[in-house]
Design goal:
Layout: E1 11-18, E2 21-28, E3 31-37, E4 48-51, E5 56-59, E6 61-66, H1 79-89, E7 91-96, H2 107-120, E8 126-132, H3 145-151, E9 155-157, H4 166-178, E10 182-185, H5 202-207, H6 215-231, E11 235-237, H7 243-254, E12 259-263, H8 265-269, H9 291-303, E13 308-309, H10 318-321, H11 338-347, H12 353-367, E14 383-393, E15 412-422, E16 425-426
Parallel strand pairs: 1-4, 6-7, 7-8, 8-9, 9-10, 10-11, 11-12, 12-13
Antiparallel strand pairs: 1-2, 2-3, 5-14, 14-15, 15-16
Helix pairs in contact: 2-3, 6-7, 7-9
């Protein structure tokens, strides 16, 4: 097979489309053996073949922000169902947040998570726990970060309860950096309508809802940028939702500040109008913003100001969302739909396919120190075959997650994962 040693090849994925051209992917011993122009005339004796005609070849994705709810809230989601949604959604790596019960602030909880993942999906998707930054997410005392890192936590976060005490937060960032870990921060001012779930503006006034302004997010972004610059350590900013934050992050990166940032598919495609009619399925924290904010986020993704797209997968039981808007929890279930929604932006020419690959696969793995497949020889054979023309309807029957809390319920999407391989082994 041309310059590739045929003895190293165990599988040939034929005729997939990668970067606009048809290719054959050569796989052996769990890694990429080669990526060559597709040639149906070549055959290798004793090598398995997989027909990928009409399908896009993508690296397996990494979700840097998901809530899998186990232990403690298995009625919303458990690790098995969450990883099922990840597998069928194209995600081979999932970073899961610490807001479980008990909180993931001890090695025992971390190890339990990893054991449950291995038992449910032994070939992957791979679970990467994010440990609590403070004990019980209280914001008062640091969790045993070194113990959590040794147990398998790839990062630390106080999740949806941002640390108010700036001194404790600063020390946490320094400590985490000292053991080779990153702090992920949910940027939200603790006094400006925390968790309101709706953007402050004309719509919130019309609906008569307590609302949160975009500055509640950007104030904390500014704090984190200054701390990151002062201590010389990286901070990762979770689910950025507004133009003001994008401007601050762009300013910080121009100064060389070690800050990275994510946004989510719902902030790129939905506006605050999704909550009109008091639709709690669109209640999320930070809240959905405006068309101007969407434009700023898209521009930030394209120029690298925003590094990655994460799902912030936050499943809830149906009865929890079917209450008055103010009483409903924040959160959208997103693992099942993220790739199709993001590919819709590619189809609409709002993002390039290269942006999708960078933001959903390459950069998340780089930021959190995970192996990444760039389809170079020796890269892990973690890849997805995606049908860009497959039409499907979002429904409880088509979602693998227990959480059906999405404003996309009933919507038609185009594009779906057909096959998913990790380490050269088919998991979907």
């Amino acid at each position: 097979m041309r310059s590739v040693d045929p003895k190293a090849v165990e599988l040939v994925v034929r005729g997939a489309t990668w970067q606009g051209r048809k290719v054959d992917l050569l796989v052996g011993r769990g890694v990429v053996a080669g990526l060559i122009p597709s040639d149906p005339k070549t055959r290798a004796k004793g090598v398995a073949e997989f027909d990928a005609q009409g399908l896009l070849l993508l690296p397996s994705l990494t979700d840097a922000h998901a809530h899998l709810r186990e232990p403690g809230f298995e009625y919303k989601e458990d690790i098995a169902s969450g990883l099922s949604a990840a597998a069928f959604g194209g995600f081979g790596n999932v970073l899961c947040m610490a807001n479980t019960s008990p909180v993931n602030d001890t090695a025992t909880v971390t190890e339990l998570m990893l054991e449950r993942a291995k038992a449910a999906w032994p070939k992957g998707p791979r679970l990467h726990p994010v440990g609590a930054l403070t004990k019980g997410l209280s914001g008062r005392e640091l969790a045993p970060l070194a113990e959590l890192a040794e147990a398998g936590c790839v990062a630390f976060s106080n999740d949806g309860v941002p640390v108010e005490n700036t001194e404790i937060f600063r020390r946490a960032v320094e400590y985490a950096a000292g053991i080779g870990r990153i702090v992920i921060d949910h940027c939200e001012d603790p006094f400006m309508a925390r968790g309101a779930g709706v953007n402050e503006g004309a719509l919130s006034g019309l609906l008569g809802l307590a609302a949160q302004p975009d500055v509640a997010e950007s104030i904390q972004v500014a704090r984190d940028v200054l701390i990151a610059e002062y201590v010389g350590a990286r901070i990762h900013l979770a689910h950025v939702s507004c133009a003001r934050s994008v401007e601050l992050i762009r300013f910080a990166k121009a100064r060389g500040v070690l800050v990275t940032a994510e946004t989510c598919p719902h902030y790129l495609t939905l506006t605050e109008q999704a909550v009109a009619g008091y639709d709690a399925r669109a209640k999320v924290n930070p809240p959905l913003r405006t068309e101007a904010d969407i434009a700023a986020l898209l521009a930030g993704l394209k120029d690298g100001t925003i590094d990655i797209i994460a799902t912030d997968h936050a499943p809830h039981a149906e009865h929890e969302k079917e209450v008055e808007f103010d009483a409903a929890p924040c959160g959208i279930s997103g693992l099942d739909t993220a790739l199709a929604v993001t590919y819709g932006l590619v189809r609409a020419k709002k993002l390039a396919l290269a942006d999708l690959v960078r933001c959903l696969a390459v950069r998340p793995a780089e930021i959190f120190g995970l192996p990444v497949n760039r389809f170079r020889p020796g890269d892990p054979a973690d890849f997805v075959l995606f049908d860009p023309k497959a039409a499907w309807t979002v429904s409880p029957e088509t979602l693998r997650s227990k959480g059906t809390n999405t404003p996309l319920l009933g919507a038609s999407l185009t594009g779906r994962v057909v096959h998913h391989f990790l380490g050269g082994k088919k998991i979907v």
